[in-house]
Amino acid sequence: MDRYAVFVDAGYFFAAGAQAAFGNHTPRKQIALKSPAATLADLCHEAALVTDNLPLLRAYWYDAMPGPRLSLEQSAIAMLAGVKLRLGAINSAGEQKGVDSLIVTDLIDLARNRAIADAVVVTGDEDLRIAVQVAQSFGVRVHILAAGDPSKNVSPALQMEADSVTALGADWLATHLELLPAVAKTAAAVTPPNQAPIPVAKTTVSDEIGAAAIVVIEEMLKTIAPEQLAQLVQHFSTQQTVPPEYDRPLVAKVSASLSGKRFTGEENRYIRGLFVRAVKNHRRT
Fold first, then answer.
1. Which end of the chain has fewer CB atoms at under 10 Å, N or C?
2. Averaged pLDDT for residues 72-90
């Protein structure tokens, strides 16, 4: 089948991309896509150039779960047309696990089933070399699309196996990646339990907690970029859970403002409900 597919190792894309765009190693939690939709569209455009503009089958985005729920960014990517989100896990040491095996499986299966003629892989990991060889044995051309200089972040063995190696330049990466401010640790930070559906009524939660939450939420909304706010609104149109990168600071900051108070499940749900409604109302204003 004369089509191509794109396989993106998100861990590699963010690490190597930030190094190329900003000149330093940056923790993953401080890197974000300015617009997932624009990034995936432009990435597929770059991939099409190395495949002689074949039609696109789909793009695969391989990432790891940051916790028990999808991040806002992952949720936005999963909703994109023509994009398949594949998730590994993060172990206790903070290392991404299971992603390489997902890429290997998808690449070989698509090649074996003659679903694609070309594969464009955004990675630098030598562990994928065998998968490249197997895909090529089925007649698939495999291209490496590096994030930045491939001589610095793509295994030489992988480069030798690939049918071509091209790079996303620093300017391209800087257009699509942004650095987020580091979140200061709060002494009274708490780890909230898994979220349950957000209640529609206040029930027995005290006015003191509600007032403190509103102040914290207003401050948080001032720091959320318009692109992220739009993603949050889209997220809340289909889901009622707060993404972990907002949930943890929200609960921790409200707790800190109340001298380290630990909340009940009902109180946690109420605070999150205020955040959801504030995001929706803020977007409409």
1. C
2. 90
Cβ neighbours of residue 270 closer than 8 Å, sequence gap 6 or more: 198, 199, 202, 203, 205, 209, 210, 213
Q: How far is Cα 263 from Cα 261, in angstroms, rounded to an integer?
A: 6
**Cα 237 to Cα 22: distance, rounded to the nearest angstrom:** 34
Helix axes 226-238, 265-284, angle to 10 degrees: 120
pLDDT digits (tens, 9 = 90+) for 164-213: 999 999 999 999 999 887 654 444 444 445 555 455 455 578 888 988 98
The domain defined by 4-179 folds into: Rossmann fold (3.40.50)
Task: Quote the radius of gyration of the chain (alpha carbons, Å).
Answer: 21
> What confidence tier does 92 reach under pLDDT thresholds 50, 70, 90?
low
pTM of the predicted protein model: 0.74
Q: Distance (Å, rounded) from C-alpha 206 to C-alpha 164?
A: 62
Domains of the chain by residue range? 4-179, 207-284
Which candidate, 184, 226, 227, places its Cα nearest to that of 33?
227
